[in-house]
Amino acid sequence: MNLLRVGLLSLSLYVTRAWSQSPQEALSYVSAALSEAQFTTLKHPAFPKHGVRIKKTKFCDGTVDSYTGYIDVGARHLFFYFFESRSDPDKDDVILWTNGGPGGSSALGLFMEQGESLPGRRMPTRRNTTPNLGTPKPTCFSFDQPVGVGWSYADFGEHVGTTEEGAKDIAAFVAVFFEHFHKFKGRAFHLSGESYGGRYIPVYAAAVYDQNKELLKKGLTPINLNSVMIGNGYTDFYTMMLSYYDMVCTPATVPPVLDIQTCIRMKQVLPRCEKWVKQACIDIFDEFSCQAATSFCSEELEEPLILSGLNPYDITVECEGEIEDTICYPITKAIVQYLSRHDIRKLIGAEHDMKSNFSATYHYISNLLDRGVRVLIYVGVNDFGCNHVGNEKWTSALEWSGQDGYRAQLLREWSVNGKKAGKVRSYGGLSFVTVDGAGHMVPYDKPAESLELVNRWMAGEDI
User: Fold this and answer.
1) What are the pLDDT digits (tens) for 18-37?
2) Is the same domain home to 446 and 402?
3) In the annotation, is 383 catalytic?
4) Is 176 exposed, middle or buried, given 0-12, 13-18 or 19+ CB atoms closer than 10 A?
5) Do 295 and 351 lie in a common domain?
6) Active site residue 180
7) Active site residue 295
8) Which residue of the set 105, 106, 195, 450 is catalytic?
9) Containing structural domain, residue 216
10) pLDDT tens digits for range 283-325
11) Active-site pick, 144, 246, 383, 445
């Protein structure tokens, strides 16, 4: 098991070709009259290489306007879901969400973490079901990326080589979509994700921000990029690696969970990993040496927890099922089976059967903050792979114009309904928040607290 290479264990949902192409209509500069029976294709002359195929659907919640479709970039096709706000779709903010992996379908976030209508009605997904959570405020995008994940596919095996390259496709998609759906123009737009989303989201946000200059030159409406939200993110792999010992061998969250002999060995190997990984992977990148370093450190610092039988996403509980098969959450298999049903694929227009199966980005965070884009880093304290110790370290060390003011702030408690929910440090546009009692998937473990956190953040209120 190598969390250092993949960022985080995640269920990857892969696809097999199964064509069922619907008729398409090319539109430009006008809002589309969308059908439930077939896709409509949205095009824009400013983005000749990009198209958006979209259809209405009553998938999951028939009380809100919802859509599914594909972002088409040549022979590459990224699948997305789009749900308008249940509160005030004509005014509420817009959020784009992605899971991590890398290679983790956002279907996991869609069914296990987002909105009470999606889990409970079709299948029992939440471990802690909390009725009457309140109404989620934003309109939400959720998409499967990169190509080869979930229902996203390529015609001839094409793929995107880097996150930076893929970010341009996402930025173009948002621009094309907003040009057609005029009512969303100028809305506050937030990019959010978890896990390896800590790598994706800062890069995507930078692409959206930089693209705005080109939109203005062409007389188009820029995207109102308001903030970035990252949950249990894998933004700085080096700092995260060095924090694994703290999570399992010190009372950083709970009393030490590994035996003394194992912890002594981990402590002894830490200096070697700190030096070797820095030299081979950061200072002067050497592919073979970096691979050797991360493999060694993964075996010494990560494998002991995996072998213990504990859930690496929540070290307070045992792993349920085989970690490679269910990521310790058996409900993930039920999600794959549900989404593989022919009637569900037909409902949302998916063209495939579904099967189950390292660069730091903190510099992007610095540049976004210095350009007025707010950043929320929230972390469930029971997670091992993308833990609160490492996330607090890199946010405190982050170089940006507000660094001194941020570091001068003390961690304080934040609460929901008068009950402590975690701790927060905030200054300028940067907020670091912990969520007590939550593991890697905060909205799954603590739905009420995470909903309140996001609503306060989008409203610009103190957490």
Assistant:
1) 223 333 343 333 344 677 77
2) yes
3) yes
4) buried
5) no
6) no
7) no
8) 195
9) 13-237+330-463
10) 988 889 999 999 999 999 999 999 999 999 999 999 998 887 7
11) 383
